[in-house]
Structures are given as C-alpha cells and as structure tokens.
C-alpha cells in the first residue's frame, strides 16, 4: 500500500485524505522513508526535516479528523527549494557563504503553505545561488536525474524536479529566473509552472535577479500545479513587484480546447531543435488540433535580441546582489558562478538600459502576437540534458554550448513576465521531453487548460524514471 501512495498525485491523495481513507501521518511517513532511502542515489534534499514534518502531519491529521479540512494541500508532504526561507531553519541557497543562514521569518509562500496545512519535508538541492542549469553543486554534491543518474536533472531547481519525479516529495516549489522551474521539469518529466511575474510573492526568497525572478509549482500533474498556484498566489505588500489582482480558481478547467488558437513561431522557437524533440512537440500540437484547436504562425521580431537582453539583465542584477561577497570572499563561490559574477561586473549602464529597451519591445511583440492567438507552444528545451560534468549538449550530432541552449526557449518568459507551463510530451530514448505553453499575462488558467488537454492523451505512456519504484 505504501508504494502505491507515494506514486499518486496530490489530486488523488487529497480525495483520500479528505475522505479519511488515509492519514497525513501515514502518507508523510512513507514519503520520508522513501526520500531517505533514495537520497543517497539522487541527492535531491540538502536537509530532510523529519521531526518537524511528522509533527505537522500529526497536527493535520487531528484537524481533518475533527472536520477542519483546509483543502487540496492539507496533509500533503512537500519539499521546498533551499533559497526559500523557513523560519528558524537553515536556508543555504546551495552555497558555502550562506551555509549557516537562519531566517527569523517564513517566506510568504511558505506561510501560505502552512496556512493550507501542507507538511514541509525539508530543503531541496539547487544550483548554487540559483545561478545555473545543471545542479552540479560543489558544496552539497550534484543532484542526479531519476531517469538516468548519470545525467543532470536541470536547474537551478534540480532538487525540486528530481524529488517530485522520484516520489521523494509529492509536489514542490521552485524558482525561475531564466527557466529554472521549466528546465528541470522538462528534464525530469514533470509539470512546471512559471506564473505571471508578480502573481506569486517572492518575499523571503533569496534573489538571483530582481526583475526576472519568479516562484512557482513543480508537480506530477497539471491539476496539482493549478491547486498549488491557488495556495501560493495573491497580493503581498512585502513584495514591491506583487500584483494587486483577484485570486482565481485555477483548478476550474476541463481540457476543452475547441477553437483554441495555437501560435507557433518558427524562426525562434523551432530553430536549432533536436529532431526527435521537434517531432514530439509537433505531434502534440496536432493532438490539440485533433481536439478542435487551430494553429497560426506568428512573428515576434524582438526575439532575435532576447538571449542578449536576458544575459545582460541577469548578469548585471545577479552581480549587484553578490558584489560585496565577490570582493571579500571570491574563493567561497563555486568556480562556475564566480565566473558569471565576474562577467556581470562588465556590462555598462548603457548595456543594461539597452537590454531593458529590448525587453520593452519584446513585451510589445508578444502582446501583438496574443491578439491573434490564445497560446504559444514550443519545445521547453531544444536539447536533451547532458551528463553531469559536461558543458555541452548534443544537437543533432553537433556539440553545442549547454547553458546557452538550455535557456534559449525559457528566457523570453522571464523577460516578458508572461506565464509559461512545461509539461511532458513524450520521451527520447530513456529521457523525457517537455513542451512549453506560454500565454498572455494573468492567463494561467488558459495555459493550464491546454496542458490538461495534452496530459489526458498520456504522452509518457506510463513510462517512469529508471530509479523509481514501479
């Protein structure tokens, strides 16, 4: 029975918990046992908080038995990326410099999860300071992909992606500055949602780049992601970028895509793509067409400058945040991110402001595209993740730079702040492939509905990670 429980989605488990068929204590014990058993192989957790998790699971059980069921995430065990603060617990940011940092408050999203009755199981591995896509962490060890332990899980939220894929956490939160939710979600075969910028408060999350950062769900299903967004969204006066917009019932969708207009941008989002990845994504677009959707090609001219604008913005903002430590403690950074912080000292004010002008034009071009189409679909990643330690990817037989190609299709979502969802759309060999659905600002429900329609076609055909129990 226990192995069956940890394989289930939040949506499935919530019904069992609400109906008192299973208890949060039983579920939490099985998830923690499995996480401790698997962590030596996968290294998804930096710290498992067993004692606290068991205490909160017992409290959730008592509340539910007394008729005080709080909703979908009540009693659900969740691990959280280690740059999101827990009160009175260490948050390392995956770093040496902050290895002993203890916050005296919960991040807003953590506070909301506690209010929803979630059981927080610990802090998940990440690329140091969220500044990378491999999760090959020099201080806490490399996180491994459950589908192939020799390969990266993607990053920077690699621990979140691996933990959910390996059933070491029923769901998770990640952060996304250039794709750090969607990249590991694609690499690990799960669902990852980057909400509209400002939809979810970032208060209590250590920043990478202020104007690009997002927090969002990483889950086993689209419904789980929608339910988690309902929990964590909302205006927060502590976050100056927070949007004062009404909360929505994001789980209220049925997968009806009749008359949905799908935008496809060939010049950028289907340029230099692994041939098998492209084939899978186009087949899934056809699946939506078979359900009544339409396809229209769109032009987004400013995309040709997007990679440059993302790079200048993220480098400049990240290096500003870490400037003092770069001067005083340069050797305490991992070599890969130290180089990035040093590079971030080079762009001028002119460069940064020109990048913001590109960003403004990109937002305008996307807005014009969304006047013609409802969603934009592309591959999440143009390549399959590489082996741990490699700095290149294989693109149709050619070795290409790993980082540049892994963030090519996700970065525009951060520059524009538009919502973007990655869902599994099939496999290449033994590795999952992700498909990205972008939408207009604040239209998360629209992209979730399209994702749900694809999810119902069972694109993974029951295939599961090699390290996970069957």
TrEMBL record:
Record-level Gene Ontology MF annotations: asparaginyl-tRNA synthase (glutamine-hydrolyzing) activity; glutaminyl-tRNA synthase (glutamine-hydrolyzing) activity
Keywords, ordered alphabetically: Ligase
PROSITE patterns: AMIDASES (PS00571)
Classification via Gene3D superfamilies: Amidase signature (AS) domain
InterPro entries: Amidase, Amidase_CS, Amidase_dom, AS_sf
Record-annotated Amidase domain positions: 26-448
EC code: 6.3.5.6, 6.3.5.7
Similarity field: Belongs to the amidase family.
Protein name according to UniProt: Aspartyl-tRNA(Asn)/glutamyl-tRNA(Gln) amidotransferase subunit A
């Amino acid at each position: 029975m226990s192995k069956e429980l940890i394989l289930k989605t939040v949506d499935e488990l919530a019904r069992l918990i609400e109906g008192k068929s299973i208890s949060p204590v039983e579920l939490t014990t099985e998830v923690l046992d499995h996480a401790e058993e698997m962590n030596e192989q996968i290294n998804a957790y930096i710290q498992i908080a067993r004692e606290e998790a068991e205490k909160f699971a017992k409290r959730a059980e008592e509340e539910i038995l007394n008729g005080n069921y709080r909703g979908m995430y009540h009693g659900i065990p969740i691990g959280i990326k280690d740059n999101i603060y827990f009160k009175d617990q260490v948050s390392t940011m995956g770093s040496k410099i902050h290895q002993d940092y203890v916050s005296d408050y919960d991040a807003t999203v953590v506070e909301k999860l506690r209010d929803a009755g979630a059981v927080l199981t610990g802090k998940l591995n990440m690329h140091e300071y969220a500044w990378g896509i491999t999760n090959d962490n020099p201080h806490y060890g490399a996180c491994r992909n459950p589908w192939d332990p020799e390969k990266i899980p993607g990053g920077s939220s690699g621990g979140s992606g691996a933990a959910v894929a390996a059933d070491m956490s029923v769901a998770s939160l990640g952060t996304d500055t250039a794709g750090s939710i969607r990249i590991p979600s694609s690499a690990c075969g799960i669902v990852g949602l980057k909400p509209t910028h400002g939809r979810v408060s970032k208060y209590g999350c250590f920043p990478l780049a202020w104007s690009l950062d997002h927090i969002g769900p990483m889950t086993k299903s689209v419904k789980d992601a929608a339910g988690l967004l309902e929990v964590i969204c909302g205006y927060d006066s502590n976050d100056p970028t927070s949007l004062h917009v009404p909360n929505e019932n994001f789980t209220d969708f049925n997968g009806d895509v009749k008359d949905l207009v799908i935008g496809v941008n060939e010049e950028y989002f289907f340029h230099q793509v692994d041939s098998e990845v492209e084939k899978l994504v186009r087949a899934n677009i056809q699946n939506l067409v078979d359900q009544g959707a339409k396809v229209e090609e769109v032009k987004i001219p400013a995309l040709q400058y997007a990679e440059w604008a993302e790079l200048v913005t993220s480098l400049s903002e990240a290096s500003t945040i870490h400037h003092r430590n770069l001067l005083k403690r340069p050797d305490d950074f991992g070599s890969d991110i130290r180089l990035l912080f040093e590079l971030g000292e080079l762009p001028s004010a002119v460069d940064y402001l020109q990048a913001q002008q590109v960003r403004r034009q990109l937002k305008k071009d996307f807005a014009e595209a969304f006047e013609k189409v409802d969603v934009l679909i592309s591959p999440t990643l143009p390549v399959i993740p590489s082996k741990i330690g490699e700095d290149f990817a294989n693109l149709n037989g050619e070795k290409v730079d790993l980082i540049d190609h892994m963030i090519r299709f996700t970065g525009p979502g951060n520059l524009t702040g538009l919502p973007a969802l990655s869902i599994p759309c099939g496999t290449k060999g033994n590795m999952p492939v992700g498909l990205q659905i972008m939408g207009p600002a604040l239209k998360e429900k629209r992209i979730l509905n399209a994702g749900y329609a694809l999810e119902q076609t069972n694109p993974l055909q029951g295939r599961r990670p090699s390290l996970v129990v069957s």
